[in-house]
Amino acid sequence: MPKHKSHSISLALQGGGAHGAFTWGVLERLADEPGLDIKAITATSAGATNAAAFAAGYARDGAEGAKANLEKLWRTISAKGAPFTAFSWSQSPLTAMPFSPVQMGLALTSIASPYEFNPFDFNTLRDALDETVDFEAARTSPIDLFLSATNVESGRVKVFSGDEVSRDAVLASACLPQIFRAVEIDGDAYWDGGYMGNPSLFPLIYADAPRDVLMVLLNPISRLGVPRRVPQIMDRLNEISFNASLIGELRAIAFVQKLLDEGMLKEPLINKYRRLNIHAIRGGQVLRDLSLQTKYDTSWTFLTGLRDQGRTEADSWLSACAHQIGTGESSIDLRQEFLED
Question: Mean pLDDT over all residues of the chain?
Answer without folding.
Answer: 85
